[in-house]
Sequence to fold (507 residues):
Amino acid sequence: MTEENMPEEQETEFVFPGEHDIDESELTDAEQWSAEDFDTEDFDFDDMTEEEWAALEARLGIEHREHLEEELCTVAIVGRPNVGKSTLVNRFLGRREAVVEDFPGVTRDRISYLAEWGGRRYFVQDTGGWDPNVKGIHAAIARQAEVAMETADVVVMVVDTKVGITETDAVMAKRLQKSKVPVILVANKFDSDSMYADMAEFYALGLGDPWPVSALHGRGGADVLDEVLRLFPEKPRATSITEGPRRVALVGKPNVGKSSLLNKVSKEERSVVDNVPGTTVDPVDSLVQLDQKLWRFVDTAGLRKKVKTAQGHEFYASLRTRAAIDASEVCVMLIDASEPISEQDQRVLSMVLESGKALVIAFNKWDLMDEDRRDELDREIDQQLTHLPWVTRINISAKTGRALQRLEPAMIEALESWDKRISTGQLNNWLREAIAANPPPMKAGRLPRVLFATQASTRPPVIVLFTTGFLDAGYRRYLERKFRERFGFHGSPVRIAVRVRERRTRK
Fold:
């Protein structure tokens, strides 16, 4: 069929009533919209003013708030390995937040959690097991516990009632006797009243009365919390920033250098680093001031398996990594440049793309690269990352600090795109040109008629097209490509949704 004899009703038509106005207040969640909600005859279509857009953003809950500072006290939970510190932390929080498993060494980093008791907000700091005579990764874990003791407002030392006083307990108690802050001695695993005699020996530690607690069963935890709040000073050692800085999740497979990167940008030993894959278990938060802004970096556990096949603490670590990604605003995906891009890398990348977060890809360990490997990497990028031309890629070395100054501008650009909104008028002018250049394919003997488009939301940007027929995935990819050519949105995913409105039958 030639263009001359094609029936008029089958032509691609773009309807743009420029003299009317859409009630944007009804456009709240693109996923919940249906064709029945829209009757084009009832709509006006004027460009909204900046004030109207700002009011709409406020109604949609996407206003930008400055960071919120609070004077919150901190309680540090310390003790030797496997005495139940993380279980006690979860009991204080009232939820299972810290990773717990019945063998020593699961917790490795210094993790802070925001908690509330008796109407008062405070931080609980979980630590790894402390031991003065360890080396390697265990020495790094012990140093994190020591930092927690030095910075907390109250210290809770946990001992095991069933085991009694060990040499490590005695050394830690001697150190805490010199502490400038109050210390509470908690005798954990106190499962029955018959254990009072076992608990009595802890008086020898010189830290006052031990508090009998069973963190697993909830016994005595409330009494300890009451005592913690009583001992908190009127003013904490430091002011805490609880909300505001943009959240950055460091993600990637195990041993790719996430913790090393966090330590490098924060200029402190914030995360435990070791050559053994799987060192980080819990997500580690850290406020970091870079050249332009204050950021909240989150170091996550490396994902080595699918969540469904992971077991034990790996399973819970995977869940927390997912939660950290969902809670973040921009993800820095680390890939080991010295090794081939693996299935694990692709799996983590897919998880980030599904979450709809802004994205920066950092090829780490660039200091280990040679010319041959660079050529191989270029081929791998062309083959495996060709669907992500909109993502900024930077080559860094967390160990040496190479090119780390490029990280912040890339994150800022990605977040600006993630937050950006295009006015309805601009969007429809672009769409009219894109469709004129390449009409959508015919479906069931008809060409779809495009009614109008609107940007439903930001974070990530969602463009909703209202049509009289289905637009296949290939055509939506074409529209996304043309959209990016016109408006940019570098570093942010763009989702194009189609809402089909059935053609009304003529009477």
User: Anything to note?
Assistant: The chain has three domains: 8-48+423-500, 69-231, 244-418. The CA atoms of residues 45 and 267 lie 52 Å apart. The radius of gyration is 28 Å.
